[in-house]
Amino acid sequence: MSRLGTALRLEITLQRRYRFLHAAVFSGVLWLALLLPMPADLRSAAEPYVIFGDLLIVGFFFVAGAVFFEKGERTLDAVVTTPLRFHEYLASKVILLTGLSVLLAVFLATVTHGVGYHLPLLTLGAALGTVLMLLLGFITVLPFQSVSDWFMPAVVPIAVFNLPVLGYSGLWETPWLHLVPTYGPLLFLGAAFDQTALTGWQIGYGVAYPLIFATGMWLLARRLFDRYLVAKTGGA
């Protein structure tokens, strides 16, 4: 089995141990309890915001919680000293949690709308948004040793990555919000429920810009991982 396959198996085991998979199911049930009592038109309007919020939970908070657990159990120290490479370690988290987030988004949309939505747009928006939130959570958590130290500084990047909600809702319409990479995924989520009609440049922007931004975040994550974990454990 490849190292990535081994890392994925380990990640599934850890996520089950930390009960994050259970928490994801519970989160989906809570969102359904919020959405199902709504009238159909209001439910359609709320759906992109709900799924966007779920990306924040599964992406940002789950990966942050996983890293803190791994630090506490010294799992990361063991990872650093094994042949497992950084990109394989991080890719296992991104693949598993992105898949989980997309499944939750499809589950929520199907239960509340049947098949009355655009699956490719929903999948694309959920996947891109989750990857961005995952990398953001991973980057912000590395310098800190405890949740209490991390939580307040983490409020700022969370707030920035959620600013597109203001533009999408019409509360703050400015082109500057397009600099926030989560704007594109949010547009795809809206288009999945026929709330917006995407133009050609919006589709290109919505795919290319988040991917470019995510690449930069991945490189930054590697530098921070080396600085705060590899250097402290003496790993290569």
UniProtKB/TrEMBL annotation:
Cell membrane in keyword set: no
Membrane-crossing residue ranges in chain numbering: 20-37, 49-69, 90-111, 117-138, 150-171, 203-221
Residues spanning the signal sequence: none
InterPro entries in UniProt: FLQE3_permease
UniProt xrefs under Pfam families: FLQE3_permease (PF24686)
Alphabetic keyword roster: Membrane, Transmembrane, Transmembrane helix
Keyword Signal: no
Protein name: Uncharacterized protein
